[in-house]
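for the recovery benchmark. tokens below, seq after
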């Protein structure tokens, strides 16, 4: 799949692009069965809510490790995911920085505070914001089940110095309260990324985004595939975060079979 010139301009202006129904029901069924299997694994790369329910499953795209998955490995290599990401990042040489399935469980699934992904990734040592995330919804996404919200155009502000938020079971770098209030007051309305399972969104690493509690009776499952330009890989050292969140595999990712997910069933 190639982005049109108009889509590329929109990505540059808004910082995100939505692809309704990008993956079929059959593909979503394969990825959902895999998510259910992965959620039963105990490993460092499986993060739980304080209640014990699974919040996130990292590193599902490699062919080794506790949370490896043939289907998710295929997903990150499909032309539908990889080709637009290469175009958005302006290079044919990109690799997966990390993958993460956020399983936001019914009633228990909690907030992701407003943040920019590059808030963390610059601290990991990535020199430039040449990074983007391709997210695919594996369940229908509605506002009530804790949809992802993005703030259009906010990537143009550049990186905002974050604080370390410890309010959830996955501690990370978020935008300070006074700063985000002021940005929200000056901006157009945040956009919820809603739609049927199989819908996808590609967004820039400086785009402000967040999501709320899952107040519904069903789990909300999304996979986030974060990409980096190979030329932008960080230097690794003793203080680098673990491989499941900052991948050590920085080789350019090849385009593979667009039917790879179905073949993994
Ligand atoms: O799953 C969500 O609702 C948001 C996740 C997110 O923003 C992130 O993982 O960076």
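predicted aa per position
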């Amino acid at each position: 799949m190639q982005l049109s010139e108009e889509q590329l301009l929109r990505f540059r202006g808004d910082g995100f692009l939505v692809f309704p129904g990008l993956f079929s029901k059959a593909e979503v069924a394969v990825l959902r069965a895999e998510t259910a299997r992965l959620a039963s694994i105990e490993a460092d790369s499986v993060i739980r809510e304080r209640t014990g329910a699974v919040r996130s499953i990292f590193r599902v795209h490699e062919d080794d490790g506790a949370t490896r998955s043939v289907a998710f490995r295929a997903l990150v290599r499909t032309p539908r995911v990889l080709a637009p990401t290469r175009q958005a990042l302006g290079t044919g040489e990109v690799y997966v920085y990390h993958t993460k399935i956020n399983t936001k469980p019914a009633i228990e699934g909690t907030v992701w505070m407003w943040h920019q992904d590059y808030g963390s990734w610059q601290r990991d040592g990535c020199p430039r914001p040449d990074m983007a995330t391709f997210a695919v919804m594996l369940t229908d996404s509605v506002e009530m089940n804790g949809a992802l919200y993005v703030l259009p155009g906010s990537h143009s502000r550049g990186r905002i110095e974050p604080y370390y938020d410890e309010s959830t079971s996955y501690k990370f770098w978020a935008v300070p309260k006074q700063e985000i209030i002021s940005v929200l007051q000056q901006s157009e309305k945040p956009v919820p990324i809603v739609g049927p399972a199989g819908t996808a969104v590609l967004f820039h690493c400086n785009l402000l985004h967040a999501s709320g509690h899952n107040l519904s009776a069903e789990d909300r499952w999304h996979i986030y595939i974060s990409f980096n330009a190979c030329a932008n890989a960080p230097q690794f050292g003793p203080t680098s975060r673990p491989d499941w969140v900052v991948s050590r595999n920085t080789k350019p990712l090849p385009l593979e079979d667009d039917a790879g997910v179905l073949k993994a069933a």
